[in-house]
Each structure stands twice: as C-alpha cells, then as structure tokens.
# Entry
Amino acid sequence: MTESCLAVEAMAGDDARSIAEWRYPEPYSFYNWSTFPGDVDELLDPAGWGSVFFVARDRVEGLVGFYEFRRANDEPDGGLLSIGLGMRPDLTGRGRGRGFVGAGLRFAAERFRPRRFVLRVATFNERAIRVYEGVGFRRSGVTPGPLEGVEFLVMHRTV
# Structure
C-alpha cells in the first residue's frame, strides 16, 4: 500500500460500524473505539462533535483506515487543523504507516487549506511517533491523556 494507491472518501455508516469493531492488541488496545464512552457516538455522528471523518481505501486491502479532522481552537483564523487517524489493526507495524499518513495529510491540505497540522499520540506509541516524525511532524510538548497515567505527545507540522 502506497500513498498513491489510497482513495480518501467520506465515511459511511457501514465504515463507522466496521471501524468501531476493530480491536488492537496490547498495548495498543487503548485505541479501541470501545475504550471511552461516547467515542462510538462520535464516529457515527461526527458533525455533532465538531469533527469530520474520512476513510482510506486500497484496491487490494479495501478499508485500511480513517482520518478525523477538526479545526483547532488554538488559532482563531482556522489555520491549525487537528488530525486523528487510525489504521486497521492487521495492517499496523508492517511499514505502511508513512503512505497512509501522507495520503491523509495531502487530502487535508487540499480540502481544508490549513497552515499547520497538530496531532496527539500516546507517548508509549513509539511506532506511531516514528511514522509521524518520518512525515515531518515535530514534538512540541506533552499533555495529560484521557486515562490516568497516559500522557500524550503533541506534534506539529507545517503544511
């Protein structure tokens, strides 16, 4: 799966239900949609939460992941776009992350025209941090996460 092989399109209800059923192995089970009450509601009705969700499809693999985009409140002019993303569990750790992340960033840059991207990733997720740094994100701080004892690394990238 390369960036050029991925099609990014609006998330449909069937996509959301499939993604909500994905189960990541430890220690990544933290990213399961069932971990936090209300998360599945956000996935199924993102407009009510201020997010917009899209999916990535590959001709061979089918649904490979999702992207969440939200205008960050840090900049009143909308120049900062917050992104979230997830790849199908059976595809993670196989060297496909840069292409997947790159496709989402290219799509978001064209669609939303931000000046900068921001994302938050659990500090224990060194695998994802390497991918994000590999596509140009830089570490900019640490913030508490939604679970006690889990911190998030804040990362920024200029478009």
